[in-house]
Structure formats: C-alpha cells, structure tokens
Design brief:
heterodimer, A: Purple Acid Phosphatase, chain A, domain 2, 2 domains, eight-stranded mixed beta sheet, 15 helices, 14 strands, about 35% helix, disordered N terminus, B: about 100 residues, mainly beta, OB fold (Dihydrolipoamide Acetyltransferase, E2P), five-stranded antiparallel beta sheet, 8 strands, about 40% strand, globular
C-alpha cells in the first residue's frame, strides 16, 4: 500500500504521472481465451472435490516489543506504510481471524502465510492458539513474516533489532525454528495428521488432548525438538486426515534454506489435491537491501529451491487427471526466476490447475501465459487489512470442464451489518483528540523509534482502558477447571486496573514500565470472566474501525457509509 | 430445539430459503447442493417435488423436497450464490416463485 499517508494533492499528481507512465508501457488487455467461462455456475450434473477455507496475512504482532531501531518510527512508516498499523489492529486483529474461522468451522482451513509479523516464537504460539478455532483442522503455507525479521531479512538473531522486536516473547522465529514449530502444530491436530505419520515420528498414533494456553508453547517446542532434520512422508492407505504428504528440511546452519512442503487431499468425487509450497526458501540469506546477483528481500520476492521442488515432483505426477491447486504465499510474479521455474515444472506435472497466493493484501485473479496456455492465479486478500477477506476453494467437474469455485466473503460489510446495524455507544470509538485514536501515529513525523513507541504504547494502554469500561470483568465463575483471575499487581477491580493504566500513561513513565503492565494485562484478559459475546463484538468493531480508517488514511466516511451525523448545536 | 428442516418457504414473498439453524446443528459440513436439473426458470413445482440433494461431508446425502405451500412457477434458482461454508451462519435464498396471481 504505497503512499498511504500522502495528501490528496500529492496523491492525485502522482497518480496522474503513474497513469501516463502506465499508458505508455502497458500492452493490450490480457484476456482469458474464449474457451474459458467466467461466473457460470457448475452444471447440475457436476461432481465435486472437498473444500477448504482460505485465509491469509493476519500479521499477528508482538504488543510487547521494545523500540525497533529504524523500522518502527513514524518516519519509517511513511516509507513502508505497514511498518506500523493502528494499535487496535495489532491488539484486536486476531479476533477477525478467530471470527472468520468460527463462521466456517466445519471446513478445514488453509492459511496462506504471514501468521506472524515481526517473526517471534511467541507470535507463532499465539497464532497457533487462534488457529485452533478451525475445528476441522488447518494447514499453512509459510509467509515471509513467518521466519524473517519483519518479513524482510534473515537478520542476526542475537542483534539488538530482532531481540528488541521479540521482547517478552523470545526467541526470534528463524525459518528453521518455524518449520519445527509448524510441524509440531500439525501434530497436535487430530483432523489433519493421519496416525501413520505420528507413528513414523515415533509418537502415539493419536494426539493427546488439546493443550491449554499455558501448555501450548512447551508442547510445540517439545514436539518440534524431536523432529528429524529432514523427512519425506506420504500417506499410503485410506486413513483419515487432511494431510496426505509432507516433506521438510531443517537447516540450522543456513535457516533460509529450510522448507516445509505439503500435499492435502481434497478428493471427493474425483482426485483433487492441494500442494502447499514454501515460497520462503532461499538460496542466500534474504536481506533488507539485497546486494549482488543472488541477493533478495523476502518481502519483495519468494523463492523455491530445487530440493523442495524435487520432493513435490513425485507427488504431482502420481494421479493423472487429478485437479490441483498449487498454493504459496508469494504471487507468481513475485517469485525469483528459480521459484517460477519450480512452479512451472510442478504445474506441468500436475497437468495445470490453479495457483493460489496471498501477500498482496489486495486479492484478485491474475492471468499468466497467453493463448491456449493461459492459466489463472487466485490471490487472496488479508484477513486483517482492508478489504478484510476470506475465501473458500473447491473444484467441480462436468462436461469435460474443470471449475474452480472460490466464494469470497468481504468481512468489512459483514461486521457492519452484524454488529453495528443497531447502533453502538458513541464512546466505543476513539476520536482524533484521544490518545487511543486509531491513526494517532500517522500524524507523527519523528525519526525516533522510542518517541513513536511511547505514543503507540500509550495508545494501547488507552485502548485497554476503553475496553475495560465497555467489556467489564464479571464476578469470578465458581472454581473448577478455570484458572483464577490474574489481576495486575496492586489491583483487584476494574476501577483499580483503570487507575493503574492511567498512572502508567504519559511521558514521565518509561516504555519498560508501560510494557510491563501490558504483559500483565494480557494474562488478566485471558483469565478474567467477561461476557464473551460482548467481548467479541467490541473487539471486532475496534479492529474493523482500525482497518477501515487505515485504508481511508483518516477518520472519514467511506464510499458505502449511509449516514454522517453533524455536530450537536 | 434443533431445526429438522433444511429449507423454509416464505409464502408472502414466495421464496424458499435455507434454514441456518438446521445447518448450524448439523454434524458435518456440506460438500454441495446437487440440483434437480428440471427445477429451473419456468418449471412448475408443487409440494414434495425434489429440488436438490444435500451432499454432506462424510458421504451421506439428503433429498430436499418442496415443503407445503411451495408450489407454482419457478422464476429463478440460486445455483451459484450459496456459500456452503456459511449455511450455518445465514439463510440463503434458494428458489423464487412467481406471485400466485401472476
């Protein structure tokens, strides 16, 4: 989203220049040949594959990060607009992911990457916790934020920047660590992993009961540590489980060469498969400013190396006539030539099919090739950034045709209709004069990361204070399996918590003290008793405002807002 | 109490809709609705006419027939616009019939 904070005049001038430039460069419009049909329902006699839900790019962000040199200043956000998101999007954005999964919980989910943002182990653990809402199971294709610092580079994990970013939820999530923890997350899922895969790893055929929050990180790390550095496994019988093949390589010396590639079984009336590629596997370590012939920034380009492609080649050629969805985080055009060659080779062996990607936060269909060799890519938008998007994917066959059926749900209007149509308390919404205003950071010009983070932390604390006013703590439920409420130190009521929040806001209090309270507040929120329906509504609406105003670059009516109330006179 | 009917007919608007409680309570998800090819624009239907078959994830099938009152000439059917993943979340229109005096 370049130019997010430009003024309208500058944006208009720039747009005019861009239009002229594109008019000079653009070729003729690219068309799907007339042998393809668009928008035609599958024939009545069609047969179908199984279906998966597609979500991507929730960018779960460490709320406890120390100031990150260079990257997280207001000035840096002007250059790279997603360097900072509204506080409420970082704070409440996971509710959008959980809600989308709850709405579709009978269908397995494929996450197309960027579950994390700064790339910290604690971000991934929280991400896995949210993904448990996919009750029919979930799998994932890794994104550039799931193993590379800020999504851009393989940085020094002991260096100041990554350590600061992962403060309180260390260590940094290097790519090799990601593979271990991700495969461990698969192994915890009964609906995804066939028993024979667990046996292959020397585990009991059935996973133990789902871990609690306090058990989850230990369970992931423990299972991850038991994995061999390389494995290729394929299901042989008709066991239950979405996952039909997996191969990985974990290279702790060169983490960027680590990969995990997976095949999922979508067969119902005919053979159908999904191939989840790891487009975040690089020959050389990605860097923020790539130098030399092999240099690459993982935020700009994806890559697939030969060993991964070879692992998947045997799978794609097994079933002539099967329908294939090749899936990966980076769009095809953002792959290096090596990555594109790998996809081309796998597509050829698979006999075509659709390529599914994410990363752009602006979903669309894309065309590649020409004439009869034209093929399509379905790019899925973000479940966080506007327009908030969720899709499904299913194949159908009839009369010699293959259909891709991919209903899209634009969740912004759904939030508005479901949660705001009866109105809302006006003070739910932070106003521009208030410390937790969604875009307060966007008015800063400082190059100081510390000054920026002071504003962001105060905004987060103010958002907390506001939430406690509207989603209060209820009397504690009778003791049972439930953990007792972990009140922040020195408090025992919402009023006292709010008072402590107020004492912690302002310039006279260090960032460390502010973050210390935020850490306590996370535990408090997890253990306190609250009206869950009210909490969901409040959190969704906060994330909705944040996502919407960020896209609009200001608190202003959107094109499809029906009403605007003038000030009282 | 869980709904036992996957569809309901709105007699005032002459519209057949899915019942979200039915699908929300169902154990499995839906693979697809397999429509009766003869039920489309211009067809005349009456109670108990097979409209479509629900194909459940898990190899079970369930025929959906026109409920009482769902009789008349079909204007259109919603073969394209049902997001099967949301059947337990909201009601989808499925068949529109011509007004009784039309």
């Amino acid at each position: 989203m370049p130019g997010k904070h430009w003024t309208p005049d500058r944006a208009a001038r720039s747009a005019a220049v861009l239009v002229l430039f594109l008019a000079a460069c653009a070729g003729p419009p690219q068309n799907l040949p007339g042998t393809w049909d668009i928008g035609l329902p599958a024939a009545d006699e069609a047969t179908y594959s199984r279906r998966v839900v597609l979500v991507a790019d929730n960018q779960l962000h460490n709320l406890f990060a120390d100031p990150v040199p260079l990257r997280r200043s207001a000035a840096a956000d002007r250059l790279v607009p997603v360097a900072i998101r509204p506080t409420q999007l970082d704070f409440f954005g996971s509710e959008l992911l959980e809600w989308a999964l709850d709405r579709t919980s009978k269908t397995p989910a494929v996450h197309l990457g960027d579950g994390c943002n700064l790339a910290c182990v604690g971000e991934f653990v929280r991400f896995v916790w949210h993904m448990r809402r996919a009750r029919a199971g979930w799998v994932m294709a890794p994104g550039n934020h799931d193993g590379y610092f800020f999504g851009n580079e393989h940085a020094d994990e002991s260096g100041t920047a990554w350590q600061a970013a992962c403060r309180h939820i260390t260590p940094p999530l290097l790519k090799d660590r990601f593979v271990r923890l991700y495969v461990a997350a698969l192994l915890l899922q009964r609906n995804v992993v066939p028993p024979s895969f667990r046996l292959e790893l020397g585990l009991d055929p059935e996973p133990p009961p789902e871990p609690t929050w306090s058990e989850l990180e230990g369970r992931l790390r423990g299972l991850g540590a038991r994995l061999p550095p390389a494995l290729s496994w394929r299901k042989t019988g008709s066991e239950r489980g979405l996952l039909s093949a997996i191969a990985w390589r974990i290279d702790s010396e060169r983490p960027w060469r680590s990969f995990v590639v997976q095949e999922i079984d979508l067969s119902e009336d005919f053979p159908a498969r999904g191939l989840l590629l790891d487009t975040c596997q690089y020959r050389s370590a990605p860097s923020l400013i790539p130098l030399g012939f092999l240099g690459v920034n993982s935020g700009l380009n994806g890559e697939i190396l030969e060993d991964q492609a070879e692992a998947a080649e045997g799978w794609t050629g097994r079933e002539p006539g099967a329908a294939w969805a090749l899936m990966g985080h980076h769009p095809y055009d953002a792959l290096t030539s090596r990555g594109r060659r790998a996809v081309d080779g796998l597509r050829a062996r698979a006999g075509g099919g659709v390529f599914v990607s994410a990363h752009t936060h602006a979903g669309s269909y894309r065309l590649h090739g020409s004439g009869e060799a034209t093929w399509i890519e379905l790019n899925v938008g973000s479940i966080l950034d506007w327009p908030i998007e969720r899709r499904s994917l299913q194949f159908a066959r009839a009369r010699g045709h293959l259909w891709v059926r991919a209903p899209r749900e634009d969740l912004g209007p759904v939030v508005q209709e479901e949660f705001l149509s009866e109105g809302f308390p006006p003070d739910w919404e932070a106003r521009p004069e208030e410390p937790d205003f969604f875009l307060r950071y966007a008015h800063l010009t400082t190059t100081s990361t510390r000054a920026t983070e002071m504003v962001l932390r105060d905004g987060l604390l103010a958002a907390w204070r506001r939430m406690l006013e509207h989603v209060p703590t209820l009397p504690e439920a009778p003791p049972g399996d439930r953990e007792p409420t972990k009140w922040p130190a020195g408090t025992g009521s919402d009023r006292e918590v709010r008072a402590r929040i107020e004492r912690t806001m302002g310039e006279g209090v260090s960032i460390e003290t502010k973050v210390g309270l935020l850490v306590e507040l996370e535990e408090f929120d997890r253990t306190r008793t609250r009206d869950e329906a009210a909490a969901r509504k409040y959190r969704l609406v906060q994330a909705w405002w944040a996502s919407k105003y960020e896209a609009l670059t200001g608190r202003r009516p959107a094109q499809d807002d029906w009403t605007v109330a003038f000030p009282e006179r | 109490m869980p709904s036992k009917n996957p569809v309901s007919f709105d007699a005032d608007n002459r519209q057949l809709r899915s019942v979200k409680a039915f699908f929300a309570d169902a154990e499995n998800g839906v693979i697809n609705f397999s429509w009766n090819p003869t039920v489309k624009n211009g067809a005349v239907i009456a109670k108990d006419r097979l409209l479509f078959t629900i194909r459940w994830d898990g190899d079970e099938e369930e025929e959906v027939r026109a409920p009482a009152g769902c009789a008349g000439t079909v204007i259109r059917t919603n073969r394209q616009g049902v997001d099967y993943d949301l059947l337990g979340t909201k009601a989808f229109w499925l068949v529109d019939l011509e007004p009784e005096d039309g």
